[in-house]
Every structure is written in structure tokens, then in C-alpha cells.
Amino acid sequence: MTHHEIQGRLDEFLDGMLPREEAGLVEAHLATCEACRREKEALAELLARAGELPREIAPPRDLWLDIAARLDQRRVPLPGLELHASDAAAPAADPQVISLDARRAARSPRRAAWMAWGVRAAAALALIVLSSAITAVLMRPGPQEAQLATQRAAPARPGVTALVAFEPTEAEYIRTADDLATLLDSRRHLLAPETVRVVEENLRIIDRAIAESRAALEADPNNVDLTHMLGGTYQQKIEMLQHAAQLSLRI
């Protein structure tokens, strides 16, 4: 197995998804290749840190229409795919959060399929981001709603604003996003130009949404709803970067 082939299997190796024979070949290569060991350790650290971040930050529903309308105006047209703010406002038949573990379980075992479907995968990610700054958890019912209602009713600590309480989490979001962006930049040449274009355009949209939410929170630092919106937007940026980086590792 070549050096390039080993690097293309590192994420599946870390997930424990490789067949035993292939996993043995990767382990043997890592035992003798310092460069691949460093890349494996860096990837493992990034995935671990991303997994520690909050995966679900549900916004108050009455804030969604304004967000969706703004994102709908900015969305990148994708051939054959149409999405409007009115579509996002309609409740889904069976809304649920799709975890990263579930996405990994759905991966195709044939690597050739990743090369053929690379652009479509990026387009699907773009559609998710453009439909909402915090999709997948918008309409989900359950105990989280009661928990968030309690959080909105009382500040984290007396005398501490929602903005100040959120800043440590925000710093971790930013650090993880920056590290993922660095990894993606180092492998950008492996992605198709159309894939890079779609990812970059939608990252710009997310960054604008982050800047607007941050400005609104600075103007109203006790608004816990705005911290949920801002955190959800950061999470979408991390997921976009993570999937794009993982896609580059499979090529």
C-alpha cells in the first residue's frame, strides 16, 4: 500500500471502519512512517476536539423566519436544487438530528464512489448550510426545549452577561474551526475546483452570519437567544470544514 493510499485511509482507520487486513497494513505503515504518524495524530486530535463541542443548540423558533429569509437571499444557486425560507419554516414529518456518527455509518465502502460524488457531496453540504444557520435541530421536540427555557429564564451567574458566559465556548469554536481550515488548506489541491468554490462561497456566508450575530449580541449582551444563534452558526461552520477536510482525505 502506497504512502498516498495510507493517508487516504487515515480517517476510516481512526473510526475503526477499515477491514482487518487493511487496518493491519495501515498499522504496519504507521510503525515505520513518522510523517503519517504525525498526520494521524493531528487528525485524531481534531476529531476528538470537534466531538467535544456541543452538537445541538436549538434556537427559539420565533427567530428562525428572519434568519432563513436572509440566508435565502444570499444562497448560492445549485443546479436542480431549490430551497426557500418558506420551505424551512414548514415542520418536517419526522424531524431529527443526524449525528456525525450516523453520517459515518452511512459511508460507502467503495472509495471510487467518493471521487465520483465529491462535488455532489459538497453541494449537499452547501444546501444544509444555506437552508439554516442552525438546521437539523430547529423543530426537534423533547427535553432540550425545557432545558433551554430554563437557561433563558435565569443567567448563568449573577452579574455575568450571556455574552461573557458564552465567550469560553466561542473561543473553542474558533480554535477548532481555524485548525480544520488549516488542514483543509493543506489538501485543497486534491479537491475539484467546483467543490472548492462551493465550500468557500458558503463559508463566506457563514462568516457574515457569525459577524452579524456577534454584533447583535454585543449590542444586547444579556440576550441568551443570541448566544444560541451564534453557537449554532459556529457549529455549522465546523461541520462544513470537517466534512470538506474528510472528503479531501478520501481522494
Secondary structure layout:
Layout: H1 3-8, H2 10-15, H3 20-32, H4 34-52, H5 64-74, H6 85-89, H7 100-105, H8 111-116, H9 118-131, H10 143-153, H11 162-186, H12 193-219, H13 224-249
| Sequence stretches where pLDDT stays below 50 over 5 or more residues | 58-64, 73-156
Instruction: Give the overall silhouette.
Output: elongated
Annotation, overall tally of beta strands = 0
Query: In whole angstroms, how far apart are the ends?
Result: 15 Å
SS summary, helix count: 13
Q: Approximately how much helix is present in the residues?
A: 55-70%
**Cα-atom Rg, whole angstroms?**
19 Å
What percentage of amino acids are in beta strands? under 5%
SSE run:
HHHHHHHHHHHHH
Number of separate structural domains: 2
Largest sheet, strands/sense/barrel:
none
User: What's the overall average pLDDT, rounded?
Assistant: 67
The helix/strand class is mainly alpha
Structure, explained:
Helix content is 70%, strand content 0%. By secondary structure, it is an all-alpha fold. Mean pLDDT is 67; it is low at 58-64 and 73-156.
List key phrases describing it:
251 residues; mainly alpha; 2 domains; 13 helices; 70% helix; elongated
Compact summary:
With 251 residues, this protein is mostly helical. It is 70% helix and 0% strand. It has helices at 3-8, 10-15, 20-32, 34-52, 64-74, 85-89, 100-105, 111-116, 118-131, 143-153, 162-186, 193-219, 224-249.
